[in-house]
Design goal:
Layout: H1 9-25, H2 32-37, H3 44-49, H4 51-54, E1 58-70, E2 74-81, E3 103-109, E4 122-134, E5 137-148, E6 154-159
Parallel strand pairs: 3-5
Antiparallel strand pairs: 1-2, 1-4, 2-3, 4-5, 5-6
Amino acid sequence: MTEAARPSGWGAYATLVFVTVLALSGCSNVPRYYVRMAEPDATLTRLTEHPEQYEGKVVLLGGTIIEEEADEQYLWLRANNRPLDQDYVPHRPMHSDGPEAGSFWMIVEKEQLPSTYRDWARMTVVGRVMAGQRQTEPVLSIIYVRGWSMSGDQAGIWAHVNPRYIPSVPASVGIGAGANRP
C-alpha cells in the first residue's frame, strides 16, 4: 500500500468519533437525553388546557418565531406552534384554526442563543414549562433548540449548559398566574 493510499491516523480517528457520536445520538433530530426528559405526548393543546399538569416539566414543541422581545436579563420569543412529526421535525398544523394552530412563548437568557437563530424558519424546542402564562399562552424556558432552514436542512443547534436549570423570573416581568402582558 502506498503512503497516499494509507488512511492517516487523524482521519481514521475523526471517522471513529463521528460514527460514535451518531450511534450515541441515535441519529435523531433531538438527542435521546432530551427526548427521555420530555413528557410523552405533550402538545400545545394539552399545555393550554391543563397548564397545571405540565408546570415544571420538560416538553418538546415545534414552532416558528413570530415575535421577539428583550428585557435586561431575558430574550422572549413568541412562536406559532408547528406540531412535530415522529422525527421531531416541525410542520404546519393540519387545520389553521384548530387548537394546535396557537402560539407559545420561550424564554432564554440574553446573548445565549447564536445570532443565527433569526434565520431559522422553524425550530424544534425542548423546554421546561414555566409557572403561569404570558398573554394567556404557555411559556417554556429553553433547554435545547434545533433550528431548521427554509429547505428543511439543519440550520443550527443550541443547548443550555445545565438542562435542569430553572430561571427565576422577576415579578416585574409580569409572568405568573393570571398575568396578562400586552
